[in-house]
Amino acid sequence: MELRSLYREPEHHAEADQVEWALLELHDVFKIFHSGPVETVALRGVSLKLQEGELMAILGPSGCGKSTLLSLAAALVEPSAGEIRANGTSLARLDEDELARYRACDIAVVFQSDNLWPTLTARENVELALQLAGADHIPDRAAAALDSFGLSRRADNYPSGVSGGEQQRVAIAAAAAREAKLLLADEPTGELDVGNEKLVLEALERLRSEHDVTVLVVTHSSGVAAAADRVIQMRDGRRVA
Length: 241
Known about the structure:
Elements: E1 22-35, E2 38-51, E3 55-59, H1 66-73, E4 81-86, E5 89-90, H2 96-106, E6 107-110, H3 122-132, H4 138-148, H5 164-177, E7 182-186, H6 194-211, E8 214-219, H7 222-226, E9 230-235, E10 238-239
Parallel strand pairs: 3-8, 3-9, 6-7, 7-8
Antiparallel strand pairs: 1-2, 1-4, 4-5, 9-10
Helix pairs in contact: 3-4, 3-5, 4-5, 5-6
């Protein structure tokens, strides 16, 4: 099964102009973690639809299940109950090879920190993402992506030699370079000051508007939420608004 087919163009029907295309769907999803006799319910029947081209924010306090939701969407963990679909295809139907391609080719994940290999330069980090995705024209694509996000002068710097905001933008540039369809961002501005948060938000918007990437970001920042098209609020593992 070719994983790129998960992100096929929707079939056109007469009513298609009135229906937005759901790129990611969660249907009544539960996630329970076990540690010996202790059971922790992280998600309690969460459902949502992320439309193609949308920038959605998941807002809520620490421990509400935001990061767990993102891990499920990235196929890093499996739901205890419910279903997750990428462009109409259930992730539960994919075998290990298909899931690996889904993670390497079709989605990109940006964490709060530690997104980059510390022993590689910014350019080498983007090139590695392209290699893992099986891309061609790697040097040219990496250079173009770094330039698009204003990072050309940082291309030969190691992560320790750039700011936290620049590290996040390198990770975002890598998603653009390999043409990921969906970016999952977990508190991408959580360790940044207001100025760097603004730059990262601008990079996310550029990723969407210029590179056609759909964005799902989990955050506790009202500033990030204000930049989103739609905000889903969570508390205690549930969607509350």
